[in-house]
C-alpha cells in the first residue's frame, strides 16, 4: 500500500472516530473524474473539515491549487497538519472563518476558480450561490454535495420542525441551479446526492 493511501485511510478513520462528516466514496470519485477530464486546476472548497476531500482533489491533478474555507478551528488546524504531512501545503490556501463572509472577500478580490466543491452548511447553499457563480471561470463547474439531505428532499414526511428551514432552502437551491440557463446541470442520486453544474460555453463573439 502506498504512503498516500495509508495516510488517506488514517484520515478517514480519524474522521469516523471524531464524528466529522467527510465526502463519501462514489462522490469523491466523481469529483476526481471531473477534475481530470476537464483539466481543472484552480479549486475552491466550502467546508474543508480535516482536508480529506481537498487532498484527494489536489492529488487528482498535477499543478492544481486549492482555496478552502472552514469555520471550525480545530478542524482547520487538523487540515493544516494533514496538508503539510502529505506534502501539499504549498498548493493550498486554507481560510479559517465563516464561508458567508469569506466568500464575499474572495469575490471582491476578483479571484476566479474553475472547480467549486460546495460541501459546507447545507442551509446556506442558496445564499452562497450568486457569489459562487460570479467566481466561476469560463467552462467551470460547481459541484454541490449532499443535496438530498439524507432523504429529506425526497420524503416530505421525514421533515420535522427542526429541519424544515434547511430543507426548504436546499429545495430552493436545487430548483434555482437546475433552472439556471447559464448551466448544464444534473442531479446525481448516488450517495447523498450531488449536483454537477457546468457553465455553458459563451455564444457571444
Ligand atoms: C461535510 S463537512 C466537509 C467535509 C470535507 N469537504 C471532506 O469531504 O473532507 C462540512 C464542513 O463545513 C464546515 N462548516 C459549517 N458551517 C460553515 C461555515 N458557515 N463556514 C465555513 N465552514 C463551515 C463544518 O465545520 C464542516 O467541517
Biggest sheet strand order reads 3-2-1-4-5-7-6
Determine the oligomeric state from the structure: single chain
Got a strand count?
7
Bound molecules: S-adenosylmethionine
Overview of this protein structure:
- With 205 residues, the protein is α/β, with parallel strands linked by helices.
- The chain has a single domain, classed as Vaccinia Virus protein VP39 (Rossmann fold, 3-Layer(aba) Sandwich).
- The chain is 42% helix and 21% strand.
- The protein contains 7 helices and 7 strands.
- The chain has helices at 3-17, 25-38, 52-59, 73-85, 99-108, 125-135, 164-179; strands at 42-46, 65-70, 92-96, 113-118, 136-145, 183-188, 194-199.
- A 7-stranded mixed β-sheet has the order 3-2-1-4-5-7-6, sandwiched between helices.
- The longest helix is centred in the C-terminal third of the chain and has 16 residues, at 164-179.
- The N and C termini lie far apart (51 Å).
Structure in a nutshell:
This protein is an alpha/beta fold. It has helices at 3-17, 25-38, 52-59, 73-85, 99-108, 125-135, 164-179; strands spanning 42-46, 65-70, 92-96, 113-118, 136-145, 183-188, 194-199.
Amino acid at each position: 500500500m502506498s504512503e498516500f493511501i495509508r495516510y488517506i485511510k488514517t484520515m478517514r478513520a480519524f474522521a469516523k472516530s471524531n464524528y466529522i462528516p467527510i465526502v463519501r466514496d462514489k462522490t469523491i470519485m466523481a469529483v476526481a473524474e471531473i477534475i481530470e477530464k476537464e483539466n481543472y486546476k484552480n479549486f475552491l472548497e466550502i467546508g474543508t473539515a480535516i482536508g480529506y476531500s481537498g487532498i484527494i482533489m489536489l492529488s487528482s491533478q498535477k499543478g492544481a491549487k486549492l482555496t478552502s474555507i472552514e469555520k471550525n478551528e480545530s478542524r482547520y488546524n487538523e487540515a493544516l497538519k494533514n496538508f503539510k504531512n502529505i506534502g501539499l501545503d504549498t498548493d493550498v490556501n486554507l481560510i479559517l472563518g465563516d464561508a458567508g463572509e469569506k466568500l464575499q472577500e474572495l469575490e471582491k478580490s476578483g479571484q476566479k476558480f474553475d472547480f467549486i466543491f460546495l460541501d459546507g452548511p447545507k442551509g446556506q447553499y442558496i445564499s452562497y450561490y450568486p457569489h459562487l457563480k460570479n467566481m466561476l471561470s469560463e467552462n467551470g463547474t460547481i459541484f454541490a454535495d449532499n443535496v438530498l439531505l439524507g432523504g429529506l428532499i425526497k420524503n416530505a414526511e421525514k421533515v420535522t420542525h427542526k429541519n424544515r428551514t434547511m430543507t426548504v432552502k436546499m429545495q430552493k437551491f436545487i430548483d434555482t441551479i437546475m433552472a439556471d440557463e447559464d448551466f448544464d446541470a444534473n442531479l446525481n442520486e448516488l450517495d447523498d446526492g450531488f449536483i454537477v453544474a457546468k457553465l455553458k460555453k459563451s455564444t457571444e463573439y
